[in-house]
Design brief:
The protein has a 7-stranded antiparallel sheet, with no helix packed on it. The protein has one domain. The chain is globular. It is 0% helix and 68% strand. It is an all-beta fold and 81 residues long.
């Protein structure tokens, strides 16, 4: 997993939706637009477990599916490929 910067939207009910994120690979910054959130897994019983967003983006003309994890207690996002 790699730590990332995320731009997200919070609605009035407190639901979070990632819009795009920045990942740094080989000293190069890439911004990826989240085209679709396929699934959200929020474990309400364990406060320390991350919120998992299974997402889809088109990157270099290829559809990619990946997971973004939001660690609410740390206020950090991570990318799981």
């Amino acid at each position: 997993m790699v730590e990332i910067e995320v731009v997200s939207l919070c609605d009035l009910e407190g639901h979070t939706k990632p819009l795009r994120f920045r990942v740094i690979e080989n000293k190069e910054s890439k911004i990826i637009k989240v085209d679709k959130v396929l699934f959200v897994d929020i474990n309400k019983y364990l406060s320390f477990s991350p919120q998992v967003y299974k997402c889809e983006s088109v990157i270099r003309d290829q559809r990619k599916v990946y997971e973004l994890l939001y660690f609410k207690d740390e206020n950090k996002w991570k990318l799981k490929r």
